[in-house]
UniProtKB/TrEMBL annotation:
This is ASGR2. The lineage of its organism: Eukaryota, Metazoa, Spiralia, Lophotrochozoa, Mollusca. Pfam families: Lectin_C. It comes from the Eukaryota. Residues 49-178 form the C-type lectin domain.
Amino acid sequence: MIIESECCCYASDFPTIDTYYFTMSSSNQNKVWLKRPVHVCDVPGFIYYKEVCFKIFEENTKTWGDAKQECELLGGRLIVLNSEYKHNTTVEALHNFSPNPYTGQYFVGATDIGSEDTWRWVDEQSIGSATYMKFHGNNPNNYDFHYPGEDANCGVLKMRHDGMVDDYCLQEKGFICEYVKGLP
Ligand SMILES: [Ca+2]
Ligand SMILES: [Ca+2]
Protein backbone atom coordinates (compact mmCIF):
# COMPACT_ATOMS: atom_id res chain seq x y z
CA MET A 1 0.00 0.00 0.00
CA ILE A 2 1.24 3.46 -0.85
CA ILE A 3 -0.03 6.52 0.93
CA GLU A 4 0.70 9.97 -0.40
CA SER A 5 1.65 12.72 1.95
CA GLU A 6 -1.84 14.19 1.98
CA CYS A 7 -3.27 11.07 3.53
CA CYS A 8 -4.87 11.68 6.92
CA CYS A 9 -3.43 8.43 8.25
CA TYR A 10 0.11 9.49 7.63
CA ALA A 11 -0.41 13.00 8.95
CA SER A 12 -2.01 11.83 12.19
CA ASP A 13 0.53 9.12 12.79
CA PHE A 14 3.56 11.30 12.19
CA PRO A 15 2.55 14.89 12.85
CA THR A 16 6.12 16.03 13.22
CA ILE A 17 7.59 14.35 10.18
CA ASP A 18 7.61 16.28 6.94
CA THR A 19 6.69 14.13 4.01
CA TYR A 20 8.97 15.98 1.67
CA TYR A 21 12.71 15.64 1.40
CA PHE A 22 15.39 17.43 -0.48
CA THR A 23 18.03 16.20 -2.80
CA MET A 24 21.00 18.00 -4.28
CA SER A 25 20.81 18.59 -7.99
CA SER A 26 24.09 17.57 -9.57
CA SER A 27 23.85 20.36 -12.11
CA ASN A 28 23.25 23.43 -9.97
CA GLN A 29 23.60 22.23 -6.38
CA ASN A 30 20.21 23.68 -5.53
CA LYS A 31 17.99 21.92 -3.04
CA VAL A 32 14.99 20.41 -4.76
CA TRP A 33 12.05 19.34 -2.64
CA LEU A 34 10.31 16.22 -3.82
CA LYS A 35 7.12 14.55 -2.76
CA ARG A 36 7.83 11.09 -1.43
CA PRO A 37 5.33 8.24 -1.28
CA VAL A 38 5.29 6.46 2.05
CA HIS A 39 5.08 2.70 2.15
CA VAL A 40 3.39 1.53 5.30
CA CYS A 41 3.57 -1.84 7.04
CA ASP A 42 0.68 -4.07 8.05
CA VAL A 43 0.71 -2.56 11.53
CA PRO A 44 -0.57 0.98 12.02
CA GLY A 45 2.02 3.73 12.16
CA PHE A 46 4.97 1.69 10.95
CA ILE A 47 6.85 2.64 7.77
CA TYR A 48 8.29 0.02 5.44
CA TYR A 49 11.78 0.66 4.09
CA LYS A 50 13.92 -2.01 2.46
CA GLU A 51 12.71 -4.97 4.53
CA VAL A 52 12.50 -3.00 7.76
CA CYS A 53 9.22 -1.94 9.40
CA PHE A 54 10.05 0.82 11.81
CA LYS A 55 8.44 3.58 13.80
CA ILE A 56 10.24 6.68 15.03
CA PHE A 57 9.37 8.07 18.45
CA GLU A 58 10.81 11.54 18.38
CA GLU A 59 8.98 13.70 20.92
CA ASN A 60 7.44 11.02 23.12
CA THR A 61 10.74 10.38 24.88
CA LYS A 62 11.20 7.53 27.35
CA THR A 63 13.85 5.74 29.37
CA TRP A 64 15.36 2.73 27.64
CA GLY A 65 13.28 0.31 29.72
CA ASP A 66 10.03 2.17 29.09
CA ALA A 67 10.87 2.47 25.38
CA LYS A 68 11.43 -1.29 25.24
CA GLN A 69 8.06 -1.85 26.90
CA GLU A 70 6.32 0.58 24.54
CA CYS A 71 7.63 -1.26 21.49
CA GLU A 72 6.52 -4.59 22.94
CA LEU A 73 3.04 -3.22 23.64
CA LEU A 74 2.85 -2.44 19.92
CA GLY A 75 3.74 -6.04 19.09
CA GLY A 76 7.32 -5.19 18.17
CA ARG A 77 10.61 -4.53 19.86
CA LEU A 78 13.31 -1.91 20.10
CA ILE A 79 15.04 -2.10 16.75
CA VAL A 80 17.79 -4.69 16.42
CA LEU A 81 20.72 -3.73 14.17
CA ASN A 82 22.52 -7.06 14.11
CA SER A 83 23.87 -6.97 10.58
CA GLU A 84 25.68 -4.43 8.44
CA TYR A 85 22.74 -4.40 6.04
CA LYS A 86 20.20 -3.77 8.80
CA HIS A 87 22.34 -1.08 10.41
CA ASN A 88 22.99 0.77 7.16
CA THR A 89 19.40 0.42 5.98
CA THR A 90 18.10 1.85 9.23
CA VAL A 91 20.55 4.76 9.14
CA GLU A 92 19.48 5.46 5.56
CA ALA A 93 15.80 5.29 6.52
CA LEU A 94 16.33 7.72 9.39
CA HIS A 95 18.18 10.13 7.14
CA ASN A 96 15.07 10.05 4.96
CA PHE A 97 12.29 9.99 7.55
CA SER A 98 13.56 11.40 10.83
CA PRO A 99 12.57 14.99 11.64
CA ASN A 100 16.19 15.42 12.74
CA PRO A 101 18.03 13.34 10.16
CA TYR A 102 21.53 14.45 11.14
CA THR A 103 21.15 15.35 14.81
CA GLY A 104 18.60 12.84 16.09
CA GLN A 105 19.54 10.21 18.67
CA TYR A 106 17.46 7.20 19.51
CA PHE A 107 17.49 4.29 21.91
CA VAL A 108 17.83 0.98 20.08
CA GLY A 109 17.63 -2.59 21.31
CA ALA A 110 21.22 -3.01 22.54
CA THR A 111 22.22 -3.30 26.18
CA ASP A 112 24.84 -4.60 28.57
CA ILE A 113 22.53 -4.41 31.57
CA GLY A 114 23.26 -7.33 33.87
CA SER A 115 26.79 -8.03 32.68
CA GLU A 116 29.05 -5.04 32.16
CA ASP A 117 30.61 -4.90 28.69
CA THR A 118 28.79 -8.00 27.51
CA TRP A 119 26.52 -6.49 24.90
CA ARG A 120 23.48 -8.20 23.48
CA TRP A 121 20.47 -7.42 21.32
CA VAL A 122 17.05 -7.59 22.94
CA ASP A 123 15.91 -10.40 20.62
CA GLU A 124 18.77 -12.76 21.25
CA GLN A 125 20.02 -15.15 23.85
CA SER A 126 23.44 -15.09 22.26
CA ILE A 127 25.72 -12.43 23.63
CA GLY A 128 29.06 -10.84 23.04
CA SER A 129 31.16 -10.45 19.96
CA ALA A 130 29.36 -13.14 17.99
CA THR A 131 26.76 -10.55 17.06
CA TYR A 132 27.20 -7.60 14.71
CA MET A 133 26.99 -4.33 16.63
CA LYS A 134 28.38 -1.09 15.20
CA PHE A 135 29.61 1.33 17.84
CA HIS A 136 31.09 4.72 17.11
CA GLY A 137 34.63 5.77 18.07
CA ASN A 138 35.75 4.55 21.49
CA ASN A 139 32.27 3.38 22.47
CA PRO A 140 31.23 1.31 24.28
CA ASN A 141 33.12 2.96 27.13
CA ASN A 142 30.49 2.71 29.88
CA TYR A 143 30.44 6.50 29.95
CA ASP A 144 27.80 9.11 29.17
CA PHE A 145 29.11 12.65 28.92
CA HIS A 146 25.90 14.04 30.40
CA TYR A 147 25.76 11.55 33.27
CA PRO A 148 29.32 11.08 34.53
CA GLY A 149 29.49 8.57 37.35
CA GLU A 150 26.56 6.57 36.03
CA ASP A 151 26.89 3.35 34.08
CA ALA A 152 26.21 3.57 30.35
CA ASN A 153 24.40 0.36 29.53
CA CYS A 154 22.01 1.21 26.70
CA GLY A 155 22.61 1.64 22.98
CA VAL A 156 21.79 4.96 21.33
CA LEU A 157 21.96 5.39 17.56
CA LYS A 158 23.35 8.86 16.87
CA MET A 159 22.62 10.25 13.44
CA ARG A 160 25.60 12.54 13.74
CA HIS A 161 27.86 9.50 13.70
CA ASP A 162 25.71 6.95 11.85
CA GLY A 163 26.75 4.67 14.68
CA MET A 164 25.91 3.66 18.20
CA VAL A 165 27.15 4.91 21.55
CA ASP A 166 26.48 3.58 25.02
CA ASP A 167 24.53 6.01 27.18
CA TYR A 168 22.83 6.18 30.58
CA CYS A 169 19.65 4.10 30.45
CA LEU A 170 17.43 6.16 32.78
CA GLN A 171 17.48 9.38 30.80
CA GLU A 172 14.59 9.98 28.41
CA LYS A 173 15.27 9.85 24.69
CA GLY A 174 13.50 9.20 21.44
CA PHE A 175 13.61 5.61 20.26
CA ILE A 176 12.99 3.34 17.29
CA CYS A 177 10.64 0.38 17.37
CA GLU A 178 10.51 -2.29 14.69
CA TYR A 179 7.86 -4.76 13.81
CA VAL A 180 8.86 -8.23 12.72
CA LYS A 181 6.28 -10.69 11.52
CA GLY A 182 6.25 -13.75 13.67
CA LEU A 183 7.11 -12.02 16.88
CA PRO A 184 4.75 -12.91 19.72
CA1 LIG B 1 27.97 -0.58 30.29
CA1 LIG C 1 29.54 6.09 25.86
